[in-house]
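User: I'm putting together a teaching handout on how multi-component assemblies are represented. Below are the sequence lines for each component of a complex, exactly as they appear in our records. Could you produce the 3D structure of the whole assembly as structure tokens, so the students can see both representations side by side? Please keep the chain order the same as the input.
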Amino acid sequence: MLKKVGEHTIKFTMPPKIINGYAIVGPKEGESPLAKYFDYILKNDTFNEKSYELAERKMLEQAIFGATDKANMLSTDIDILLSGDLLNQIISSSFSARQLQTSFIGLFGACSTMTESLAVGACLIDGEFADTVACATSSHFSTAERQFRYPLELGCQRPPTSQWTVTGAGCSILSREGKGHNITHATFGKVIDFGINDMNNMGAAMAPAAADTLCNLFKDTGTSAQDYDLIVTGDLGKLGSELLIDLMEHHGYKLGNNYCDCGQMMFSSSQNTFMGGSGCGCSASVINSYILAKLDSGEYKKVILMSTGALLSTTSSQQGETIPGIAHAIVVEKGK
Amino acid sequence: MSSVLTYLIVFLIGGLICSLAQILIIRTRMTSARILVLFELIGVFLQAIGIFEPIKEFAKSGITVPIIGFGASLAKGAIEAVAKDGILGIFTGGITATAGGIAAAVGFAYLFALIFSSHSKKT
Amino acid sequence: MDKEKMNMAYSKFVENRLPKTKFFPSLLWAFLVGGLICCIGQGIFDSIGAIFPSLEDKVVQSYTLIIIIFLASFLTGIGVYDRIGNFAGAGSIVPISGFSNSVASPALEFKREGVIFGVCVKMFTIAGPVIVTGISASILVGIIYYIIGLF
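Assistant: Of course. Below is the structure of the complete assembly, with chains in the same order as your input.
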């Protein structure tokens, strides 16, 4: 039986469960309004390592091992690890996987990797190819900064549309059995490019992709925004979220108070991050802490998680290419 | 000219040049490397058409401390060396005149890179 | 093309919603910090001139720049210069200290990649264009003056 509904959406017949999540964040994120939900907050963002890359890797490892610990599992109980990050050749993910004795699938969807991995993981489980899947992503402000922007010590101003790459990692454990929240649907996004080429305005580049995926999800499942307790995007930031709301209205869907953005939730306005947080770690840490907690408590019963990614590289942006965006969405319902 | 007045002029001219650059940054979203190159070329140009020296007489460090002064030294070096050494001066002039600045920037950067590491950013 | 039209419309749509930099405060900070750095330069110049009255102005000028470059590299090393740059903007970019900062900051940043491929290679990632265009422009000026000198 084909599990596809509509054009882009998958409906899972045996909804895989998110049985656990673990979120680890850096010190600046530790001062955020969501601080009390995170499992671990770093005291310094080098995590007592020699380089920021090593720190990011260690965070990702801790997220994976932390999530398996919380689920009373061993890392060997995981069938497949799905992981991705922002660094060239996704080194954080593959080098972390080196520590594990499990199969590994590396994913790259820029900042959209968290829901991408959840959606792929859910497919693997519903297709009965795996029992337990770990989905993890990470990002680090300092590693992203040196790869995509400028050296940390360069004295320059961040433009007002810029976002702050979140130092953080998150891991979710998906399982066929057990107690957890059900992933009922997944919509894989299309790559959408509306011709934005400003590297410091990712929100505007990603908003059309987010709107497209969300519209597809609504259309394919025959639902609308009112049917969900929460619709949360990954890292559109303040400007991107406003654009998404406008674009959705243009398509005839009204996003109300039940819409929010992880990037905006991550930092308070006094933290000087302009449009808010971004990066793989942004949605990873918010989803695996705050949102799972709210599902646990029953405050939310049905949510859409949609991480958004800007698929650019330094080479493409230096060559003046525009920035393609992507967004993957999953629907999560509170389990019993 | 009294020294207070000198400093006032230095402050005003230096500040004006920097605010001009700031307007460019805000309006055109130029990166710092582009700003440095642009103002350096302005310096080369001012020296080449011969109006840098009179401005310098008046503005002193207000114009020599900004990268405009660096550009002007490059051009001045080339002009003087051409007068002295002919064709060879075309190549030796600019770098000779600014050797101190470039060597200092490279040397101190090297030294401090060995001593210090990048710090984590908070804001 | 239809796609292009749509992109244009979207760009315009985004443009209208862009948050604005606070224009005057940022201008004021650039003015104050830029002016101050120039005054510090003048102070160093005058001090050297007073201590060593026999030196030519040109030599004193060179020493002044070297001292500013030293101070800026040092402030970069201890992690202060980027904080100044954060509020001063062009005020700390345009003075020669900004050039020094743009040489020192990548050198520090890429230290982990080793001395040769990190520090030495990356040192000019930002300041490279300044040196290349500067030297090329000086060669051009030299050629022009050489040709003028022939007549």
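A couple of points students might notice: The first helix of chain C runs from residue 2 to 15. The helical segments of chain C are 2-15, 23-51, 57-77, 81-88, 96-109, 115-122, 128-150.
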